[in-house]
């Protein structure tokens, strides 16, 4: 995890620096539901490249937001899930959901 | 503004498609405080390029989230502000702020 003095002073900018990209947000939206495997995520997130998915997962793992669990099966199964700290993002996604629905209603 | 059928079905993905980028989020964080001029934003948002700032503002104007007001002074003054629809994003930024503070507390 980063050290406190590596993060922006502004709390909004801190959150944006940790999860503020299209793909991180969509990955987290999925992980809120349940653990996902890499290839499942890749298939669901249309248009994401292997590199961006790998980098986004590694970065959020390093920041303590998600866990990576390797199950010693054949073939090996690797699952990504929210960490307890990651679970605390749920209110953000509730607000994104409410606003998205509200925006769509203004177009009806 | 986009038509309803141009937006993703998922409301979270809708919000992400409209404001889910580092710079759009940081611009909106500023506009929640008060109207800002282009050069003020450029100066405050360290590292943003002229093109990304212009594109982000145009895109959010086209999506009905911000207004662009030209004041016929010398030199001309142009101000960007949240539209009434843009004002409705405030709960999102409250949740980003709360989570950013919470994350920082875990590092203390």
From TrEMBL, chains A, B:
Q: Which UniProt keywords apply?
A: DNA-binding, Transcription, Transcription regulation
Ranges for domain HTH hxlR-type come to 10-108
Per the record's keyword annotation, is Transcription regulation included, yes or no? yes
Pfam families in the record, alphabetically?
HxlR
- List residues traversing the bilayer: none
- Which SUPFAM superfamilies has this protein been placed in? Winged helix' DNA-binding domain
Gene3D superfamilies attached here? Winged helix-like DNA-binding domain superfamily/Winged helix DNA-binding domain
Tell me yes or no: is Transferase among this UniProt entry's keywords: no
Q: Please give the InterPro entries that the UniProt record associates with this protein.
A: HTH_HxlR (IPR002577), WH-like_DNA-bd_sf (IPR036388), WH_DNA-bd_sf (IPR036390)
Per its UniProt entry, which superkingdom is the organism in? Bacteria
Task: Read off the PANTHER family from this record.
Answer: HTH-TYPE TRANSCRIPTIONAL REGULATOR YODB, TRANSCRIPTIONAL REGULATOR, MARR FAMILY
What name appears for this protein in its UniProt entry? Helix-turn-helix transcriptional regulator
Q: Which organism is it from?
A: Candidatus Enterococcus moelleringii
């Amino acid at each position: 995890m980063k050290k406190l003095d590596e993060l922006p002073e502004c709390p909004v900018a801190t959150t944006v620096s940790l999860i503020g990209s299209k793909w991180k947000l969509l990955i987290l939206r999925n992980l809120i539901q349940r653990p996902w495997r890499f290839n499942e995520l890749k298939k669901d997130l249309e248009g994401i490249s292997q590199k961006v998915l790998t980098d986004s997962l590694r970065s959020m793992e390093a920041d303590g937001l998600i866990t990576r669990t390797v199950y010693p099966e054949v073939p090996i199964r690797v699952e990504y899930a929210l960490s307890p700290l990651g679970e605390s993002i749920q209110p953000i996604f509730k607000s994104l959901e409410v606003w998205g629905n509200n925006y769509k209603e203004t177009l009806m």
